[in-house]
Amino acid sequence: MTSAIVMRAAGGPEVLQWEPVAVAEPQAHEVVLRHTAIGVNFHDAYVRSGLYKTLALPGIPGIEAAGVVEAVGRDVRDFRPGDRVAYVTRQYGAYAERRVIGADLLVPLPDGMSDIMAASSLLKGLTAQMLVQRVYPIQKGDWVLVHAAAGGVGTLLCQWARHLGANVIGTVGSPEKVPLALAAGCHSVVRYREEDFVARVHEITGGAGVQVAYDAVGKDTFFGSLQCLAPFGHLANYGQASGAVPAFEVSMLFPKSNSLSRPSVFQHVRTPELLREAAKRYFDACLKGALDIQESQELPLRDAARAHALLEDRARLRPLVLRPIEVPGPPA
Hints:
The chain is an alpha/beta fold. It has helices spanning about 40-50, 115-135, 150-165, 180-185, 195-205, 220-230, 265-270, 270-285, 305-310, and strands at about 1-5, 15-20, 30-40, 65-70, 85-90, 100, 105-110, 145, 165-170, 190, 210-215, 230-235, 260, 295-300, 320-325. The strands form three sheets. Strands 3, 4, 5, 6, 7, 14 and 15 form a seven-stranded mixed β-sheet that branches. Strands 10-9-8-11-12-13 form a six-stranded parallel β-sheet, sandwiched between helices. Strands 1-2 form a two-stranded antiparallel ribbon. This is Quinone oxidoreductase.
C-alpha cells in the first residue's frame, strides 16, 4: 500500500483527497517508482475541473514527476533499482508516493539535474524544445513573439530564443511580470492588457513583423498573433489559457503566405527514442547555462488541493512541486 491523491468527481480543488491505494506488482516492461518530486501543471487543473475528461474516475491525477526506481520487471534493461529518473505521461497517476509505470516512459536524470528541477520543468522543457527546435527552428536574427513571457514555458522560450540569437518580444498581463520577462531574455516587453500588442510588435520590428509567434493564450491573442507575422511567418498555437480559438477561414493565412500549427508535445515524444533525445537536449541546455530554471514552491503531496488553488491564482510567479512526506532531506 501507498498513499495518493484521488479524485472521485470533477470540481474545485476540494475534490483532491488523500487516500491509501494499492501498488501493483510490476509487469515485465514496468518499474516500481518511488516519487521524490511531482510537478503541478495547468493540465492537472483542467483534468480536475472537468474541462479535460481524460481521467477515468475515481483516479489519481498528475502527469509529471521524478523519483527513484525501486524494482524492475524482468524485461527492463535500461534501468535498475536506485536509478534517478523523470517522466511525463498521459497515463496519469503521478500524485502518489509510489506507482508502477512503463520503463519506456522514463528518462534518466543526469548529474546536476535535481529531482525538483526535473519534476517542475520537464513538461515545460520538452514543450520549449519542441517549439524552438522542431516546430520552428529559430535562426540567428529572427524576430520572435512569445506570449505569456513570464510563465513557465514562456520564460524557457524567451531564454532559449535569445540563446539562439533571436530578437525576443514578450507579452505579459501585469506590471509585476515585466521584470521576469526581461530577466528571461526579452529585448522588449508589451503589457497586452494595456497596450495594443499588434501595433507595438509592428513598431518594434519596424513594420516587418515576426518570423514566429508562440501563443499559449489562445482566443484572446490568436488573431492578433496572425497579424504580427512577417511574410512566411509561422504561428505556433500550443495552448488556450483564455479559451478555445474560434473557427476561422484558412484563407486568412494567404495574404502573407503564413503557416499555422497546433503542436502536441506527446506526439513530439511519441517513442522512447524521441523522448530521450528531446529530454537530453533540454537537460543539456539547462546544464550548459542556456536555461535558468525558476526556483519552485514546494508543498506536501497531501496538500495538492492547496497547490491547485495557488496554481489558479494569476498572481503566482513560481512553479509548484508536490513532495511526498516520506522523502528525507533535500532534493537529490
